[in-house]
Each structure stands twice: as structure tokens, then as C-alpha cells.
Structure prediction request, 237 residues.
Amino acid sequence: MVHEYKLNGYNIVLDTCSGSIHTVDDLAYDIIALYKEKKVEEIISLMLEKYKDDKSITKEEILYCIDDIKELENEGSLFSKDIYEDIAKNFKTNKQEIKALCLHVAHTCNLNCEYCFASQGKYHGERALMPFEVGKRALDFLIKNSGTRHNLEVDFFGGEPLMNFDVVKKLVKYAREKEKEYNKNFRFTLTTNGLLIDDEVIDFANKEMSNVVLSLDGRKEVHDNLRKTITGQGSTI
Prediction:
């Protein structure tokens, strides 16, 4: 699978199966998006039309770019084969054991960090909070597929998971109720930017969390440079 995205003025192409990362120009970025869906002549026609005002983009330049993409494909660093595809398709029949889950309980955030890999917490989708029933089914899935494992790990993640703190508390309570029934021990982690931490969160974390991961960028002047609130203010207190 190939994933394309733009960050800080760069066109980035990630080949997920090989782990290769490429930075490319606009023409290559557009061709890669079409490479597996269109024939060469179609790609040439589409690119000539899109870049008709750029005299440097010629048929020869497009063909040269396509050849470069083919070379990357042949060496296994672009459009590489997913060697885990069969394993993934047969996951249930293989009876593999799962020991951990990362629950994205909040696809939203109270910060607006410029470099956020999660698109300010919403992952390029709609802002949303995970309902309790969805999280409950995820925990049931973990228990059911954990086999003989006793220790299970769950990370509450986002976005900012404390924006859905009530559901986090309910899910922890539900998991604790299931521990004795299934001979399991849940270890919870909370990954947070810290803005919503209050006495209630502290008491809860001290009682129920094995780990609390706090994201900071260092000194105030460094942190506030890119980690801003929705209103554009620095987020340190």
C-alpha cells in the first residue's frame, strides 16, 4: 500500500509494506497516485493537461518520471508486495493471540498543533468521540482473542482522550469487572497533552493507570511555537 501526504511543503510518499519513504516533486506525486490505475498514455494526457501552463513539463519529462517510478517499484521500495496479506485475511482461523489494543477514544483534540500527524486529532475525517458500546466491543474482542495471556494492555489514545473521559472511566470499570471472570489483568495507559488534567483525572490515573504518557515539546518558548490552542495561543500554563 502506498500512502501520499503533504507536510511542511514536502510531497511525501510512504510505501507501507517496505517502510520506504520518498520525497518527490509535484509531477511525481501526481503520477504515483495514477500509476496503478491508468495506462501510460492516459497518465501522459492527464499530466499534460494539468501542467499545461508549465513549459518544463513535456511528454519526455513525464515518461522519464514514470521510468523512475518503475525503477523504484522493481527494487521493492514502491508498490511493494504485502507479505502479511494472507496472514491478515486468515487472522481468525490462525488463532493468533492478541495482547494489546490502542483505543482511539477521541478523534478530536483541544490543541491545534501545526505538525500533528493526526490532522489535529481528527485523522483527516470527521471529529468524533468513541461511544462506550464501541469500546466495550473492542475490549470483548481483546479478551476473546488473547488466548492464554494473562496481562492485557490498553492505551487510551486520540486526539485527546480526556475529551472523552467519561467513556474512558466506563471502559476501565467494564474491564475490571471482566478480569476475574476471564483470569485477565488489564494494564491501562493514558496518552494525553495534559491540558484537561485535574484532581479527578489525577486520582483516577493513580488508581487505574499503569502509565501516563504526557506529550510536551520542551521549554515554554519551544512548546508554544507549534503547539497552539484552537484560538492560536500557546498551550503552556
